């Protein structure tokens, strides 16, 4: 594990943007899976300025690693892709042929598609306060899972989480499905590099528990300790528990 700590969100976001852009400068195809949500917002603002109108980056291909589809809206983007388009793809002018959505319709062939495309150069993820990464929440997936659909009908708490994500994406919670799809731990661990970013004091405890504690199913992100090329990007607030 490599750990980089910067003073604040602005500084660590600059590191993340520079790092991702560095991955793109290559003579061969580059496959990146990137996160949506609040954590990478400043990173994408910086990255947009680096990549927009850069024709020499046409070899860079993007994948989402989870998706929450809208009820009866299979022809439309789900929550994750909607967020990624708003945060990054649209302002950066990324051509549609370089974006490869994971959806409820193709999740069963997602791992085979990634393998055929040459695998992921890197996957850029966040971490939840409960230790989840991607859609791998406690008691939803197992370490051996590849890309799967997660049924939340027996988990009222999970149904509420999905509805909250809909609301944050500006969509009516009435459109929330009773399932979502995600790359499982095994699929994530197959990436050449895992880049995990966390910002703020609210993430300090789980960073210590997940990355420096016991590897166990109850803390899904703890499996990332075993990745041979894990890079962790933190601001000082998120690093508080491990730096004291």
What can you see in these coordinates?
By secondary structure, the protein is α/β, with parallel strands linked by helices. It has a 7-stranded parallel sheet with strand order 1-10-9-6-2-3-5, with helices on one face. 32% of the residues lie in helices and 17% in strands. It has helices spanning 9-24, 41-51, 79-92, 110-116, 156-168, 185-189, 204-212, 240-243, and strands at 2-6, 30-34, 60-63, 66-67, 99-100, 122-125, 148-151, 179-182, 194-198, 230-235. Helix 7 links the parallel strand 9 and strand 10. The chain starts with a strand and ends with a helix. The protein has one domain: Rossmann fold (3-Layer(aba) Sandwich). Pfam families: Glucosamine_iso (PF01182). InterPro entries: Glc/Gal-6P_isomerase, GlcN6P_deaminase-like, NagB/RpiA_transferase-like. Keywords: Hydrolase. Its EC number is 3.5.99.6. One of its GO terms (molecular function) is glucosamine-6-phosphate deaminase activity.
């Amino acid at each position: 594990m490599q750990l980089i700590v910067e003073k604040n969100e602005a500084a660590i976001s600059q590191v993340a943007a520079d790092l991702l852009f560095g991955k793109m400068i290559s003579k061969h195809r580059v496959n990146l899976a990137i996160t949506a949500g609040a954590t990478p917002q400043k990173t994408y603002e910086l990255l947009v300025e680096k990549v927009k109108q850069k024709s020499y980056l046409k070899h860079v291909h993007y994948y989402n690693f989870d998706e929450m589809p809208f009820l009866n809206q299979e022809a439309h983007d789900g929550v994750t892709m909607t967020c990624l388009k708003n945060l990054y793809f649209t302002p950066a002018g990324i051509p549609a042929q370089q974006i490869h959505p994971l959806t409820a319709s193709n999740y069963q062939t997602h791992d085979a598609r990634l393998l055929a495309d040459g695998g992921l150069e890197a996957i850029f993820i966040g971490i939840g306060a409960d230790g989840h990464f991607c859609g791998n929440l406690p008691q939803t997936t197992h370490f051996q899972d590849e890309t799967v659909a997660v049924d939340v009908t027996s988990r009222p708490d999970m149904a509420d989480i999905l509805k909250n994500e809909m609301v944050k994406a500006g969509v009516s919670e009435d459109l929330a499905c009773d399932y979502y799809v995600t790359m499982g731990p095994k699929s994530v661990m197959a990436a050449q590099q895992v880049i995990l970013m966390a910002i703020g004091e609210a993430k300090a405890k789980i960073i210590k528990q997940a990355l420096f504690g016991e590897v166990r199913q109850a803390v899904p992100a703890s499996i990332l300790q075993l990745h041979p090329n894990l890079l962790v990007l933190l601001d000082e607030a998120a690093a508080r528990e491990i730096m004291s």
